[in-house]
Structure formats: structure tokens, C-alpha cells
Write a structure and sequence with these properties.
Blueprint (H helix, E strand, L loop, with lengths): L11 E6 L9 E6 H5 L3 E7 L5 H20 L4 E6 L3 H11 L6 E4 L4 H6 L2 E4 L5 E4 L2 E6 L2 E7 L10 H11 L1
Parallel strand pairs: 3-4, 4-5
Antiparallel strand pairs: 1-2, 1-5, 3-8, 6-7, 8-9
Helix pairs in contact: 2-5
Length: 170
Amino acid sequence: MLKVGDKLPAATLLEFIEVEGNGCSLGPNSFDVAKATAGKKIAIFALPGAYTPTCSAQHVPGYVQQADALKAAGVDEIWCVSVNDAFVMGAWGRDQKTRGLVRMMADGSADFAKATGLTLDLTARGMGLRSQRYSMLVVDGVVKTLNVEAPGKFEVSDATTMLAQAKAQA
């Protein structure tokens, strides 16, 4: 399992782009995690699934609300990672009003979740293999903080905890 001090694993995440620019075309665009994190401080939070109750009511809204404070604490980007396709993540991002605040990164085949060792098997609930709920602060591709939730909990991966950690790493 990924731990503090580790480099993020080699992986590709997808993001649905609605406005063409910066070399990105409209629709799903793939991003190499190593290249996308190079030279940046990124707050990453992962969750079991788009449109699920805790994720939609608390997790994403918390990061949207704290986006300016996180950026003031030196965070370059905020990523929400979920085992959903880029189309679902794009639609969810529109619903959650994340544009310009939180990048909605799709891990459709759970490759990133598997590579981090932070998977959650929700097959019994009809959701298949998903990501655990967690947050991490990543600096130049290296994990500086990692907050993994206990099953069914939402206590340590929230935006307020991440903000305190980002301030401490400034």
C-alpha cells in the first residue's frame, strides 16, 4: 500500500474537458500522473463513487468550498479521483460546480487505485472494485501526507484536514 514518502505509481487518469485549450481537446483527455504532478503541490482526494451520498453531500463540496484557502496555502491543484469513467466524472463535476476549483479525474478501470493498493471491494453492493476514501498531499509526485478512512467513515480525508496539512507543509 502507498505510504508517506512514496512516489505516486505510474498511471494515467482521464479528465473530461469542456473548454478547449492548453493542448486539451474537448471530451476525455488522458493525463500521465507523473507528468501532471511534476513540480506541483497537489491535494488529491479519492472516493468510492460519483453521485454516492457522502461523496456528493460532503466530500466534494468541502473541497470546492476550501479551494481558495487550499490554493492560498500553496496547493497548485486539487484532484478528485474516483473509479468512474470520464463522462460520469465530467457530469458530476458540472453538478458539483467544480470547474476551475477541483479537477475531476477518472480512474475508470481502477488502475490507479490498484497501483496505490488503496482499493475497496464493493462487489457485494453491486459496485465492483472501487477506491477507498482517502486524501493525500503530493509534492512533486511524492506523498507528503496520507489520510485513509476506516470503512464507512468520513473523518480524516475531508478538506479541513487537508487544509491544515497543506499549511503545515508550506
